[in-house]
Amino acid sequence: MIVQPVLVVAAALFSLGIYGILVRRNAVMVLLSIELILNAVNINFIMFDAMLADTMMQGQIFTIFIITIAAAEVGIGLAIVLMLFRNRQTANINEFDLMKW
Amino acid sequence: MEIFEIVTYFILLGLISTAIRVVTTSNVIHAAISLVFTLALTAILFLILSSEFVALVLVLVYIGAVIVLFLFGIMITRAPLGKNAELDNDKNKKLGAAIAGSIFLLFSYILINGFDGEVTIASGSSTELLGEILLTRFIFPFELVSFVLLAALIGGITLARKDEALIDKDQV
Fold it and tell me: Which of A23, A98, B1, B172 is most buried when burial is the number of CB atoms within 10 A of its CB?
C-alpha cells in the first residue's frame, strides 16, 4: 500500500479542522473541529508506525496518549463552554469579548 | 492484498466527504453524527494498518464517550437545533478557506516530496507487545497521563458546578 494518499488525506483533515475553527461561531462546533485535527494527527502517527515497522510501536503508543489527552480536553472545554453559557446565555464565541477593550 | 488497497481508497474518500460535512453543515446534530462517521472510518483504517488496539480505543473513547459528551454539550447550551444560518461567521469564511487551503497545499507538497514508502499489510495481532511496551518502557508517561485525567476530572467538576460567587450579577 502506498503511503502518500493516506498522508495527504490526513493533511486535508487537518486543514478542514483549521477551517472549522476559523469559521464556526458556536463554541461546541469549534471543539468538534479540534477533534478533527487530533484525528488527522492520529492517522499520521499510525501510518508512519506501519511504514517504519517500529519494534517499539511508538506511533501507536503516542496515539493512545493523544486520545487520552483529547478526552480530557473535551471534558474541560465543554465545562468552560457550559460555564460561559450559564453566565452569558449564549455559546457564540464572537460574543465573548470580556478581554477586549 | 489488492482488495485492502481498494478498500483503503474508499475509506479515504469517505473520510474527506464526512470531514467536509462536519465543518460545513448548518445543523449541529448532523455535524456531530458526521464526526462519528469520520472516526469510525478512521478506526477501520487503523484496523487495516494492523493496529487493532488503537482502533478499539478510538471506538470506545471517541464514539462511546466523547461524542455523547458533545451531544450533551449541544443540548445543554441550547444550540438551535435544525437548520440554522447563525452557526457560521460569514465574515471569516473567505479568509478561513484561504488559510486552510494554503496549509493543505504546503503540507501535501512536503508529504508527497518527503516521504516515499510502502506499507506491507501484516497479519496477526500486535496488542500483546503493545501492552508490554506500554507498561515497561512507557510506564512514566502512562502514570503521568492518569494524573492528567484526574486533574481534568476535578477541574471539570469544579468548573461546571453551580457556584453563586462566580456568577457576575451585572452581566446576566
Answer: A23
